[in-house]
Amino acid sequence: MTRFVLPIAAAALLAGCATAPAPASPVEVTRFHNPAGLSVIEGGTVFIESAPRGGDSLAASPYKAAVARELSRLGYRETNRSEATLIAQVEVDRFAIGSDGERRGPVSVGVGGSTGSYGSGVGVGVGINLGGGRSRERVGTELSVMLRDAKSNQAVWEGRAQFSVGPEAAQAEPATNASIIAEALFRDFPGGNGETVRTKVN
């Protein structure tokens, strides 16, 4: 009986390793800004909306909520559109990455109960069906945010962040995913103009 303990334990350990989700990639962030324009609206009020080309999908709700939290941390107070000095336009794209590293179609995100201003509880679970070895499949996320002067409609800051993770990892869940990518996007705001940085995901 004793002779089989170690082989069985080893087999269980190897099975656990085989099914472990792929680790998250670093978040790659690129930002552009107009320093003069930003100084005028610094610490002002902000209205957060979906970007015109992005639609107002429920899937974007946790990302808009995450952007709102980051802007609040930076000293901007959220308000309605008519009173805002700053308009934040948010666009999010979630897509499947096959085991060959090629980008595939969009992932399907399950919708659960919504909470908060943007339904920050929306999105429970990620559906992905690419075939092949699931351990090598990934979910990619790209978040784009443009900050505009509400009076002139001039863009004063624009940022884009993207990263990928295994579909079964905790970081693939929409609310967690949104918090990770938004925090990286607004870290050291406004960031270097035209500079691309990479942030490790814990």
Sum this structure up briefly:
It comes from Altererythrobacter arenosus. The protein is an alpha+beta fold and about 200 residues long.
- Our measurement of the CA-to-CA distance between the termini, rounded to an integer number of angstroms, reads 41 Å
Biggest pleated-sheet summary: 8 strands, mixed
Question: For the record, what CATH class applies?
Answer: Alpha Beta
The tally of strands reads 10
Domain DUF4136: 52-191
Pfam family, one: DUF4136
Organism: Altererythrobacter arenosus
InterPro entries: DUF4136
Descriptive account of the structure:
The chain is 24% helix and 31% strand. It is elongated, with a radius of gyration of 20 Å. The chain starts with a helix and ends with a strand. It has one domain: Double Stranded RNA Binding Domain. Strands 1, 2, 3, 4, 5, 8, 9 and 10 form an eight-stranded mixed beta sheet that branches. The protein has four helices and ten strands. By secondary structure, the chain is an alpha+beta fold.
